[in-house]
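Record type: monomer structure entry
Structure origin: computed from sequence
Chain ID: A
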Amino acid sequence: MFGLKQKKNLVGLDIGSSSIKAVELRRSKGELELVHAGVEPLGSDIVVDSMIVDSGSVSNSISKLFSDAEISSKAVATSVSGHSVIVKKISMPAMTEVELDETLHTEAAQHVPFDISDVNLDYQVLTDNPAATQLDVLLVAVKKDKILNYTNVLSLAGKTPSVVDVDAFALQNCYEYNYQPSDATTVALLNVGASVMNINVVKGANTLFTRDVPVGGNQYTDALQKELDLSFPDAEAFKLGKPLGTVSEDAKGPVLQQVTEIIVLEIQKTFDFFRATAAGEHIERIYMAGGSVLIPGLMEALRSEFSIPVEVLNPFHRIQPSADIAGSSLLASNTSQLAVAVGLALRSFDAVL
């Protein structure tokens, strides 16, 4: 998306509201392999509504993560999401790339709900028919202060911000490389984080619809705190399956189910809106990623609601870990939380995608 400097071998760095994830890949004998991976937890109220509130804490956490994961590279690709990010498919008369560059700002002003001088713009032409009289263009606008919010923290940590992507597109990049979908395959990619869920409906390699929903794993934790009178750390641990001597395991199910119903409803509303705007398109499968995908009952509820296959996206389906990888213990847990970071790291190898 938004290239800031010449790309080198990039470290994919996913700055979420509950943790920071880092992935570094390299090409070996024509294949890609994982050489470094790490996750560093963040305290609450450090990243709020996808904005970094405590720059010092995030900067220190990035430095610690790179040290613990033995990452020496400084060039970073990161990504953003939330209400400061606008993704919209628009139609324009057929024109050359030069003409499109010249007219995009004027056209974008009609579709972006911010002052056009306050955003960075990028786009991708989706129409591949040279004889077409209309072009479908995927327009992406991100508020400049949002990008600076992230790049300033990277610079503070001694890293070089080289690419700023969008979470949903980084996830799509990971999916495309690992699963190599056919042009006719339509799937929904869901990245369920702590505070935001990214939804991206893609057909082959083309984005059809994206939406960021402000729900996620923190709602489960908050509900457990409130209903069972737990501290945040105890509620977080209980949510993830660690037993608490003071609370019965049976008490957890109904609380989790209430939040799951809210999340499923948001997904259903998104799918309904997608179907209303994309005549004839049918979602065939759901791929789940993020730190919250393994919450008990969530995937089962989605299978029941939509009657289609639902599976955890494997970000290393076609990427092998190197023999000397630092952070290998991560690969025995929820690797789907690294999906966005993998998609970002893949920006080093756009030519092989």
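Annotation 1: The longest helix spans residues 252-277.
Annotation 2: The first strand starts at residue 2 and ends at 3.
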